[in-house]
Amino acid sequence: MCGIFGVHGAQDAAGLVHLGLYSLQHRGQESAGIVAVDADGVARAKRRMGLVSEGLNVLDELAGTLAIGHTRYSTAGSSSIDNAHPVLVRFRGGYIALAHNGNIVNASELRRELEDEGSIFSSTMDSEVLVHRMARSKAERPDDQLAEALQGVEGAFSLVVASGNTLMAARDPRGWRPLVIGRLGGAVVFASETCALDIVGAAHVRDVQPGEIVIVDADGLRCRQALAPRDSRRCVFEYVYFARPDSRIFDGGSVDRARRALGRQLGRECPAPGADLVFGVPDSANAAALGYAEETGLPLELALIRNHYVGRTFIQPSQAGRSHKVKVKYNPVREVLEGKKVVMIDDSIVRGTTTRGLVSLVRAAGAREVHMRIASPPVTGPCYYGIDTPSREELIAANLSVDDIARHIDVDSLGYLSLEGMLAAVPGGPEGFCHACFSGDYPTPPPTDPDKLRFGCGC
Ligand code: AMP
Question: Which domain holds residue 273?
Fold first, then answer.
């Protein structure tokens, strides 16, 4: 998964992008990058592995009133500066810079077509296909080039693209990933989530609509419906886990309100009679735990403390397994847990390893009974559209029944939210969401080369 941000028409555009990327750090911690375009149309890039705070503060080298940025999240195997965004290329028309969130499911086919005609690629990212297609367009105007490049592209893409002094934002026709428009004085801002508009002081205008290209240049802002909208497939996992609770996504839906509603629905569907208290796994399940407490009347406690200074990159896969990781990241509060029958809420179980480690910590801190409640249904399939879920073999719910999972993670009871309950609880539901990872209802055929895509995703 990734976060994207773009600014047109502001002094120190790169500085604003830098700030915006801080608020999109949760969408990707593997690498971060900014491209700024100066008044002569010259584009300069800075890309770094790691966090936004870890070396992207080289803004004096990034002059210009147009800039775009990206935070990237992907699997360990693809961790490489070659795959860091934004992509920046030079072609006969000048520079094209592109930042992408989502996965293109037919990237392998599109890439093969281009390679057969002599194209040379410098990364394994699906997104590179898009700049090649733009560069090959015979159209004059950047938005025509982008519209042409996006024809026949299948899957999820929210994009910010700079071509010369034009900034464009585009969203795939199913609207999988969020993308919002903001105004900051005379400047236009695009961001994955509204929390990134807030940090720069931009006012939220609206979403970039599915299939739409929004164009900002010297003549101002224009919109065009470049791709015919298809059945809406907003990613429900954005509400469940991915987006920040202080954001509004998908036509103004509050992520906080969504998670509280998920928690309340979970309380109705899976109460835990006789329990003493409820707590959420911080931070992603806090709002759902609030909702569950509201619904069931159980007191909400803070039973797990998360260390916020442990980044994803700090704990390497080689370090003594995942149970060790859990201990580095979380510590239980004995005074809250000792002798108690507790309800532990999490937003999702993916592999089950973190959950199992957490249950063991909670028991070691003296909890008498542990009742696990999950604010989404069992994850039974991989995501081909940008969420970094592992292959089916690693997904615990694809391989074990709920009772077997309960035994595996060592809880006294386990309850998942139903698919219907989840879709009824999220803003704008129940229709129009992609829930393939929970339901197996994939809106596209699976990618022909999923392994390659996973490691080469534009996320
Ligand atoms: P596990 O028990 O190992 O499956 O981990 C479950 C935890 O991972 C939950 O607390 C989720 O908040 C979190 N989670 C869910 N999806 C993802 C994801 N794509 N990347 C990282 N963490 C995730």
Answer: 254-433
